[in-house]
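Section: Multi-chain targets

For targets with more than one molecule, the full set of components is provided together so that the structure can be written out for the assembly as a whole rather than chain by chain. Components appear in the order listed by the source. The example entry contains two components.
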Amino acid sequence: MGLAHTIWISLLGAAWVALLGGRRPGAARAVALITSLAGLISGLVGALGFGVGNELVTLWRVPWVPGLGIDFHLAADGVSVVMVLLTGIAAVAGVLFSWNIEHRSNEFFGLYLLLIAGVYGVFLSFDLFQFFAFYELAIVPKYFLIAIWGSTRREYGAMKLALYSFVGSAMVLVGVLAMVVVSGNGSFDMVKLASTPLPVGFQAWAFPLVFVGFAILAGLWPFHTWAPTGHVAAPTAASMLLAGVVMKLGAYGALRVAMMLMPLGAKQWGGVVAGLAVVGIVYAALVALVQTDFKFVIGYSSVSHMGFVLLGLAAANPRGVAGAVLQMFSHGVIAGLLFGVVGRMVYERTHTRELSLLEGLRLARLLPFAGVIFVLASVASMGLPGFSGFVAELQVLMGAWQAFPAAALAAGVGVVLSVAFTLRVVQRAFLPDDTVPVTEPEHRLAPITVPEKLGALLLLGVSLWVGIAPRGLMEWIDAGLASPGFATLRSTMGWP
Amino acid sequence: MAMNYLDLARLAAAEILLVVTALVVLSVDLGLRQCDDLARRTRWAVALGVAGCVSAVVILWELVPEGAMPAGMFASDALTRGVKAGVLLLTAGSLLLSRGIRFTPHVGEYVATVILGAVGMLLIVSSENVLILFLALELASLCLYILTGFDKRSAQGTEAALKYFLFGGMAGAVLLFGLSLVYGATGAIEFGKIAQGVAESGVSPVLLMGLVMVMVGLGFKVASAPFHFWAPDAYQAAPTPAAGFIAAGSKVASFFILAKLAESAFGPAMGSSAWGRFAPGWSPVLATMAAMSMVWGNLAALMQTNVKRLLAYSAVAHAGYTLVAIAAGGPEGLSAVTFYAVTYAITTLGAFGVVGLVESATGGAELDHFAGLVKRSPRLAVCLGIFVLSLAGIPPLAGFFGKFYLFLVALDGSVGSLGLLWLVALGAATTCVSFYYYLVLLKKVFVEDAVMPERAAPGTGVESAVVWASTILVVLLGCFPGWILTPLRSALMAVGW
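Its structure, encoded as tokens over all components, is:
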């Protein structure tokens, strides 16, 4: 068991589920749970065995396409370890929150596990070709998960999301190929590429191409519009994964490929990226403030919180980037939880997400567990101390303050706005004041099931753990940023 | 050097065997015609044809030596043998897909025509002399025209065949005219001698005229825009297995010879298609055709409601991607083109196999006939999904690596580092367009419910086997592209590229 096994376990699980046939949903979800748990445990074992040295550990390396300099190269540094753990947690929670999928369940879980395998693969890839292959592998399952099992305008949301992702990856493809050709190494090895200085003039246009290509998936304003529609259309587990890990793929790619391989470009474009990130934070928060659909609020809040990740990356100093990585982890857990509550606990019982209708139901009374969890998740999401969001966003703001004080101030406004829209949605969905007339639900709401409770507690616990004791993750992240891969980035940016 | 017929017979043993096979098929069918059992006759004809193709592959490997006839009349080396084996296996696949044909009582003629077409394609691959090349191209094309119109009851088929024939005749004339101008400018008809002539006399206006005409003529064969108008009609109206043959085998041969001709005969007249540094030669001609094909093929495919037409426009777009690598030139270009053409052909053959099966079960190949396919025949749907995703360039399928390699070669090519960036960027942008219509087809298959009543499909074991074999190949070649790439590159090295 180790980090590399996460990929194979998920792939095998996907194949196993697919071969089960569609008649036994129970078996399909059991296999999915076993697989995702095995993936999480394998990731944990690998992570614990990883230590906190500043090294880049090669897990598996074989020549893949001889003659073109393409290797199958699985490796990990501290940053990868953190992302692998996040993926494992999100995957298990996602399965727990989709325990009620009966329709074509084997296909659902097969695609789900395929997506997870692709995500693990991206986080552990240190060969550019392989990185890109895993990155694209994750696009197709997303489309089907949303188009087949989704809700509101699912085909539209799915297509929009798939096309945005594909456009992003096409930009990345052009940039990646150009990078390899210009480097003259004849090799796709990312560490080797990172140590080959590319001409400034080249980085000046290739960096924005690759960075934006990845950041589309991270919800970079103004290319974020796929995210709210996609999240809303997606079934619960898929929106948990979308917000929880897929958006992180974009941010991770922006860091691992765009910034690590083209630090000069990152230096040049840092200000622009910071500007876009701040606009995203504030704009998405304002939009979230006026949504009438419960899930749209969470969708826009995701875009807003992902803005912090991009802001931290743009700051490009140790605090900022470490904060960005931690924010990826933190937001992955919290957004997963929020989507779980909205999509599974509320929507699948009330069959509405309109806040004006939910107000009358007094959900805190009907679904007390969901109410408590949602309030706690909101507290975490607003960035209150004690939860992971606080540690992460604080570091991002500190980093941004050093690099772009104006941007940090504007992002601070974003924090306030995020409190505003979060409190608004908590109040309207769960704790409306007494002037709102009470309506009885059309049918009795089923009680919250055990898998849902387990999933919610898992995510909440992780957020709490990171909030109280962020040191464990921070050590990995700092070690990761001190690993050989980031050497050129560190020296270019003048990190101590 | 005098020509020795025994040597020729040994070099061309595979082609000779195929011609004999065609004759045997015809005579056996003639004998069986007494019993008037169409299914039985089809079985025999297809079995004989496939046996011929397979034994031709064996002969290629075991019997045919390396060598060449004088004046480039016929060349055999590791590279051509590999490509020929690919063409033969694709032909065998198309024949197997034809096992359920019900559109004609003339089964023997049908199979014989396919095999003679394959002979033409093999000769194309082996030619290093423009005269032989022209004759071989005409042999292959004539067979394809006939196959397109083989369903005599279908007015549409006849129309498409006529259109194909008239356009093809024009294209052939242009090609021949171009070749005569090239001969006028260089005084040679052999690839190597032409290259010498070009190198000595430089790029003259006459030669350029000739070059453009040759590229146009061959552009027609590979269905590159703006010479693609025959393709949608031919793909749609031809009997589906024949369409698969046109789309798969013939493309491999045409792309291969286009790349080989450009590189080995016209190498010195390459010109440049690098942005801002354009210079006259074949490279800018091909780059223009590539750009037009990628844009037009993908945009036109958006509007299609018939899956065969959609595949035709997607073929136009794929011709564009392939031409990008040819325009980049160099041995890596030839390697990328061959890899792409072969994997593309396997994918397309499989896709036409699925289309044929769906057609025979639902009576049509409109998008609506594919709705809800996953519920009726999940395995077929998965296969189609894999083919379509490979065409869209999704990993880990063969189409992904093929496209990656093409674009890499184009950027790294002899045009100079990043010279073709504009073409690659255009290619990547149009791939995004293509992703939309591929997803629309997949949405029909996997997301929507059936809207067409379904008839009971006849026994389709062999067809399914071909589809499965293609699926497995598409996946495996995507995961392990080295399986083709390594021998391909060493063959290129052996030939001295």
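Chain B has one domain: 8-495.
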